[in-house]
Amino acid sequence: MCELLAMSANVPTDIVFSFTGLAERGGVTGPHVDGWGITFYEGKGSRTFKDACPSSQSHVAKLIKSYPIKSEVVVSHIRQANRGCVSLENTHPFTRELWGRYWTYAHNGQLSDYQQKFAVSRYQPVGDTDSELAFCWILERVVQQFGDREPADLKPVFSFVAQLADEIRALGVFNMILSDGDHLMSYCSNNLCYITRRAPFGKAKLIDTDVVIDFNKETTPNDIVTVIATRPLTDNEQWHILSPGEWELFCKGERLIAV
Predict the structure, then answer these.
(1) Which residue, 4, 9, 10, 72, is CA-closest to 41?
(2) Torsion on CA atoms 125, 78, 247, 201, rounded to nearest 10
(3) Which Pfam family is one of those matched by this entry (predicted)?
(4) pLDDT confidence of residue 250
(5) Which tens digits make up the pLDDT trace of 154-207?
(6) Are 198 and 134 in contact (CB under 8 A)?
(7) Range of the domain at 148
(8) pLDDT, tens digit (0-9, with 9 covering 90-100), for 77-87
């Protein structure tokens, strides 16, 4: 299956260290060779880089690893195709506009017998994956539930999305990352974890390649950074392992909701 990576931080932060570890799983330490993508939020805008090549071989991925784009919210994905051909349009993350915001989504897993359930009209998939169709269906249900204007409080929106994710999980494996550019939601079907780094910072060592970073030299005492991944990326830190059906909501690195 695919692997997910996301970040929520209270200051613009680069994800070079974590992405370097994830990229190795795209053909070196893992079988996820069917494309990759990453989205960085900057204010209300976002930058997305995608490639249908394995992340371990991609020249675009090399750019990301060498160019520290700083962002408060990042969503990334490496793909091992099961539904849909290997192509750019089937590469995550997927983005759609809702309430004047870019919403970004990535999924790890495989669904079955989903076509009739995911009836959509307003939001149409571009590719032919179960993942993108599920995303379109989620957004349509959100609009049906909350209307065309953004609610003052978005926490009930993400709680509703978690209910929809419970329904989708009945169709197969559904690990999900979703962001509106401010909030970052993670939903676990079987494999998802996170770590929140804050002062006092220490050193971290990647599992997938021989890279060590001393966060104390790269941060300030006020920095808070949460990283979400399918599997732990470092072997000398304590990652929180989510249980099936558990979901979390983060904003500026802090956990807002844990269910």
Answers:
(1) 72
(2) -140
(3) GATase_4
(4) 98
(5) 999 999 999 999 999 999 999 999 999 999 999 999 999 999 999 998 889 888
(6) no
(7) 3-256
(8) 887 656 667 78
Name, in order, each residue with C-beta under 8 angstroms of 24's C-beta and a sequence gap of 6 or more: 30, 56, 206, 208, 209
Query: Rounded to whole angstroms, how far apart are CA atoms 187 and 26?
Result: 22
CATH number of the domain enclosing 52: 3.60.20.10
**Which of 2, 136, 188, 251 is labelled catalytic?**
2
Query: Known catalytic residue: 2?
Result: yes
Q: How far apart are the first and last CA of the chain?
A: 25
Let me know the angle formed at the C-alpha of 15 by 253 and 60, rounded to the nearest 5 degrees. 145
The pLDDT confidence band at residue 62, using thresholds 50, 70 and 90, is confident
DSSP state of 243: P
